[in-house]
Amino acid sequence: MRAAVVGGGLAGAALGWRLAQRGAAVTVFVAGAGRWRDATGASGGLVRGFDTDPDAARLAAESLAELRGDPRLRDWAGYQEGTSTYLLPPGADVAGARRTLRTVHTLLPGSAELRPAAGLAPFRGLPEGTWCVRERHAGHVSPGRLRDSLLRAVADLGGTLRCEPVLGVLAGPALRLGLGAERGYDAVVLATGPWTPHLLDRWGLPGQGLSTRQIQYTLGRSVPRGLGAFVDETSGLYGRPVGTGQLLLGLPTSRWGVGPDEVTRDPALARQVAECAGRRLGLTSWPGPGARTVASLDCYAVGGHGGLALRGLPDSALYTFAGGGGGAAKTALAAGRLAARALCPA
Fold first, then answer.
1. Which pLDDT band, with edges at 50, 70 and 90, does 38 fall under?
2. Are strands 131-140 and 80-88 parallel, antiparallel or unpaired?
3. Which of 46, 92, 110, 202 is least crowded, fewest Cβ atoms below 10 Å from its Cβ?
4. Sorting pLDDT into bands at 50, 70 and 90, what band is 157?
């Protein structure tokens, strides 16, 4: 099978590696949408097993179990194990969370527990009725390091990496390259992250329920004792310790439908993050001197279409592999396996 994967971010690299493992003749176009500007380099790299979406939780737990069980993958990803806390707001579906945790326990035995969050340090001011999922086997990866390692593995397995812009897609399917060249394949996959909705629109293709949203976080000094990676749905705050003495914190943005060249840092949102850090974590002087705010863009599946997944366009062998948003790093390994199996079942 001749497969082209357009996009050399983490999603495209994971899919290309899985296809090469299955014996496909795969070509990954690493400059198809500006590799140096993809979302992989800006990802926080949080990995955990639990998610409020049961399907996403299964993919995340499968990915984490494979990562923890394979020394090679751990090295490729720069995996650092730590704890994860997921705070569920009052009125959340606790019974559904318990069902999801049974799946997580199957893949990561003894890793997670669900309990009331009252008195949970270092969090402050949590609303009454908040629950938390605590995971022992979680942590973070370097998405950029994992991407680069997977691309090298594609080449080692006989795949091809092409640093060449893709100018369009044609029936067949085929790719239109520079100087009028065309190259045909059995399947073409756009794994172009936040560029995907823009490219589909430019090339007159269906949107598939994908949209862009800006992501933004700040790196500052001071880490509360005992704090690992966390998501706090009662406030929207999320983050994790980074290196020695740094803390990454962010809040979701409301900037949907942003173009690839329209990303700008939002100082007001950065101030909201600092204020939330003071209220929820007691960090009244965070972020401190030398703080850095990072703004980027990612692709989200909206309207119940799921996260990072292979999506086929009608009556063609053209697909997208995007939609995981800011959490794609935690599902990429398992989602890539599923997508490769669907494309190349033999």
1. low
2. antiparallel
3. 110
4. very high
The answer to whether residues 56 and 307 touch, using CB atoms and an 8 Å cutoff, is: yes
> What are the helix (H) ranges across 108-188?
143-156
In which element (H, E) is residue 339 found? helix 332-343
Name the DSSP class of 32: T
Per-residue burial over 182-191, b if 16 or more Cβ lie within 10 Å, else e, is ebebebbbbb
Contact between 84 and 48 (Cβ < 8 Å): yes
Question: What's the Cα-to-Cα distance from 296 to each of 93, 242, 253, rounded to whole Å?
Answer: 31, 18, 11
**Residue where the block lists tokens 């310790």:** 241
Cα–Cα distance measured from residue 100 to residue 139, given in angstroms and rounded to the nearest whole number:
19
Contact 154, 13 (CB under 8 A): yes
* pLDDT tens digits, 164-193: 889 999 988 999 998 889 999 999 999 999
Q: pTM of the predicted model, to two decimals? A: 0.93
Q: Compute CA distances 173 → 53, 227, 310, 313, whole Å.
A: 33, 49, 16, 11
In DSSP terms, 113 is beta-bridged to 134
**The two structure tokens encoding residue 58:** 């299964």
